[in-house]
Write a structure and sequence with these properties.
Structural class of chain A: alpha+beta
CATH architecture of one domain in chain A: 3-Layer(aba) Sandwich
Low-confidence stretches of chain A: none
Number of strands of chain A: 16
CATH topology of one domain in chain A: Rossmann fold
Distance between the termini of chain A: 46 Å
Strand order of the largest sheet of chain A: 1-5-6-11-10-9-7-8
Oligomer: homodimer
Largest sheet of chain A: 8 strands, mixed
Largest interface: A-B, 101 and 102 residues
């Protein structure tokens, strides 16, 4: 082997064996189907962008992670998310698009992170965004969680909760207490509440110059809980007159109302005032999604409302709202938690097995009959003993094997074996598709 | 605009507007569905590979086109096809795969070519391959064109011909004439027959030291035509005793026989002795596919049999056969030739239009009823006049608009308008899904 190159890939890249790839694709297809059902249009932007364009906004951590390179005279970069390419695309094609523009994109993005467990350098993001010109109705803030609700219902990995908040509520409230200049610091601290605990948060807030009495107020405010209507009532009952705050509360109330209109179960969404997300980016409604029984997974789908998508590229004001599912990471976590059970390593419903080479013609006819009904089927052609052929069928996990010997070929039948319970019976080729469906 | 970055991408990258993306995805989905129906398993390899591994075999032109870059300590490259990653993957996971291993991969590949009309630097390849260990039955040489036949039948872009040959026939024939040492030169010359014409080919062959009498023989041989059985008969009737030649002819005969077993129409496949393809790579059956009415497109799907997939990575002998559709280029060519007709720029079957904001609830219920039946639907929420709302519906090309005013909301109906013929009628929300299906 000394003259061979060792076949391998870099850490941080997910490559799956067929049975896992089938499970992965099933998730991908489910998400895509729901996105399309809600009227989102497909988009597939270039993987390689001009660095000058892609990195117009980036800086700091993001920039360090970019796969960036020179080719000829061009300074190029691989996309690191799907939002910047969307901004560029919408600015570039604004005259050709119909607004509100609802698009989905489910593609790989690339980040040269230090590899660690559960972190990927190349991973799928499954994004939807709605972009308006100048304005975008608040009802879209409810459509996003309604889509997510449908996605996770159909993915069927157990109970989940979409946690929602509105940045105007937080920003307005902190403004009303006189901390308009420290909102970023306060939000970053609050965001750590679950991780570092109440006492550490109190200390940190005081370090930022928040008065001790206000610290208590803030923590009491963030702890407002109960049913969604209770939270709305409690928020409305606050004494602050801050306009931004009032606007945020009424937006939350509207979103809650519309969500019910979308048929989303009450147990699946919950106002949580501690949710802040993407500090520089989001300006209104924000979401996170948690699997109830697997809180350690963290948020499996997040997003929110932003005021202006493409300010770096155009003077047109393009408000929008978007959410993203990090599918590669989600798949990895589901598998780690035993929620992806080893499936079959084939898509075929039936493997046709001719006893020998002289029966290939009959086998082809049987396979063609199944495929003609749109059902995946395969034929085993290799010249092996019958025992090995059946072993192959068992190994790939195909539900049915259709065995064809001379008698079957002569009578236009197959011996159809149910691979799960071992039962077998003669079936006419004409009835084969129905029998394996 | 002076402080804005101009939103743009590099030439040679295909980005589509929604209506074209929908048409593109329809082709992508059709190809994938057929591949799966024939039992091919999905694979999705890493986009970024280690250069040492990816370029184990490459050289010359290929190497110049690679997007190659350093990140940290790693010398990395973007894949330039899907065959080398397949070889690496199969060598890496041989112990975990079941052979024959049938896989499809439909992903983007990257080549830093000089941009020119119809050439892309980032494009989709849609590949299927079957890999055996030590041996692989000849019937797979017929399954490949059978799959391609089904793909292009379902894509429905008119009559097409799969042109087939066998490299053993060519190599054996040239060996028998005493040119074993010049087969590459001869093949390269023959390959230009359609482009440069008979006389130029004669001259070039003589320049390679082919005797004048043999030049005539060769050109006569290559001109053997007629029905597939006629060609086989003519090939069998040749006086040469060369073993490789005889093997190749019998392989061709078998493939023709199996193709009929697969139910492929006789008019769709044709032996063409001038087809050579990928000189260093293919060792048996080779294919090309042409749209009969658009010969200038060239081959839209090509492939063939190879003796050993992964010799650079493993001592295991892995013979296989594969074909590839260059989907990005094909889509471009079909559009250039007017075969992709401008479709609708929406996936939704129905746009629900509430007259005003108070009717959002009723609109949501109507949309949910349609989506519940698995049918894409959308709602128009923006606060605009009725005329503008209808204009939006016409612009996106949605087949139906469901208008909801106060009367409709009160009676649980919508006013359903057929956007094509303008007819409208009241439809109960419960019947809406059926009405727009």
């Amino acid at each position: 082997m000394s003259n061979k190159v060792q076949p391998r890939i870099l850490p941080g890249f997910m490559e799956l064996l067929p049975e896992d790839q089938i499970a992965f694709n099933r998730m991908y297809d489910t998400i895509r189907r729901v996105y399309e059902r809600y009227g989102f249009l497909p988009l597939d932007t270039a993987t390689i962008e001009l660095s000058e364009v892609l990195l117009a906004k980036a800086g700091g951590e993001t920039e360090k992670q970019i796969y960036r390179f020179q080719k000829g005279d061009n300074d190029l970069s691989l996309r690191f998310d799907l939002t910047v390419p969307l901004a560029r695309y919408v600015a570039q094609h604004a005259g050709e698009l119909t607004f509100p523009f609802k698009r989905y994109q489910m593609s790989k993005v690339f980040r040269g992170e230090r590899p660690q467990k559960g972190r990927f350098r190349e991973f799928y993001q499954c994004d939807i965004d709605v972009i308006g010109v100048d304005s975008l109705d608040i009802v879209y803030d409810a459509e996003m969680p309604a889509v997510i609700y449908q996605v996770f219902k159909e993915l069927n990995f157990g109970a989940f909760t979409i946690r929602m908040n509105n940045r105007k509520v937080l920003n307005g409230y902190f403004e009303s207490l006189g901390y308009a200049d420290r909102i970023g610091d306060i939000l970053r601290t609050i965001d750590k509440l679950e991780k570092i605990g109440r006492e550490a948060v109190e200390e940190e807030l005081e370090r930022f110059g928040v008065a001790s009495a206000d610290v208590s107020k803030i923590l009491e405010f963030l702890a407002i809980g109960g049913g969604n209507d209770d939270v709305i009532a409690a928020l409305r009952a606050q004494s602050t007159e801050n306009e931004l705050y009032r606007e945020g509360v009424e937006e939350l109330a509207k979103v809650i109302g519309y969500l019910r209109g979308f048929g989303v179960e009450e147990s699946a969404f919950k106002i949580d005032l501690t949710i802040a997300r993407g500090l520089d980016y989001y300006t209104g409604t924000v979401f996170e999604t948690m699997l109830n029984d697997y809180p350690s997974m963290g948020s499996i789908c997040s997003g929110g409302r932003y005021d202006n998508l493409a300010g770096y590229y155009t003077d047109q004001k393009l408000p929008g709202i978007g959410i993203s599912i990090g599918l590669t990471r989600l798949f990895y976590q589901l598998k780690e938690n035993g929620l992806i059970t080893a499936g079959s390593s084939c898509l075929a419903r039936c493997l046709v097995i001719p006893m020998d080479e002289t029966l290939f013609g009959a086998a082809l006819m049987a396979a063609t009959a199944i495929r003609g009904a749109g059902i995946p089927a395969d034929v085993y052609y290799q010249n092996k003993g019958m025992k090995q052929k059946m072993k192959y069928a068992a190994k790939i996990g195909v539900p049915y094997a259709a065995i064809i010997g001379g008698d079957e070929a002569a009578s236009g039948t197959v011996m159809l074996k149910n691979m799960e319970n071992g039962e077998q019976r003669a079936v006419a080729v004409a009835d084969l598709a129905d029998a394996v469906r």
